[in-house]
Amino acid sequence: VQLQASGGGTVQAGGSLSLHCEASVSTFSAYTVGWFRQAPGKEREFVAVIRYNSNTLYADSVKGRFTVTRDNAKNTVYLQMNSLKPEDTAVYSCAACRSCILSSLRNSRHYDYWGQGTLVTVSS
Questions:
Q1: Alpha-carbon 18 to chain mean position
Q2: What is the DSSP pairing of strand 45-50 with strand 76-81?
Q3: Whole-angstrom Cα distance, residue 49 to residue 66?
């Protein structure tokens, strides 16, 4: 499984960006896809996840501002980011797993496949 993340860029605080994560697998609908981010000098942190059944989970820091959706026909997961803050600045990566442990969806170690990151910069 190969994942390709795109859509990063520079935006002013309060603005919006939409990230895309496209997968190269025919059984994409069976995969859970998570978004993680890593800011300079900080550890990677969980952002959001959408399960194979489209159930979602968000980090408290982005809840109400970010929305994760999927289009299985396009093998793509989207992360719509609104009301962006300078502290959202990070490299955002998508990851996928098929036999995911429900209780560990926030843990990056439980994902099997990773895409390259895309940089999001939010200026104040």
A1: 10
A2: unpaired
A3: 11
Q: Which token pair is 113?
A: 């496949």
What is the spatial distance between Cα 121 and Cα 12, in angstroms, rounded to a whole number?
8
Phi and psi, residue 89, nearest 5°: -60, 125
Neighbours of 33 (CB within 10 A): 27
How far apart are the C-alpha atoms of 123 and 102, rounded to whole Å? 35
Tell me how far apart the alpha carbons of residues 8 and 94 are, in angstroms, rounded to a whole number. Answer: 12
Which residues neighbour 53 within 8 Å (Cβ) at sequence distance 6 or greater? none
pLDDT tens-digit profile, the chain (124 residues): 999 999 999 999 999 999 999 999 889 999 999 999 999 999 999 999 999 999 999 999 999 999 999 999 999 999 999 999 999 999 999 999 998 888 899 999 999 999 999 999 999 9
DSSP classification of residue 110: G
d(Cα 31, Cα 103) in Å, to the nearest integer? Answer: 16
Strands 90-97, 32-38: parallel, antiparallel or unpaired by DSSP? Answer: antiparallel
Secondary structure letter of residue 75 according to DSSP: T
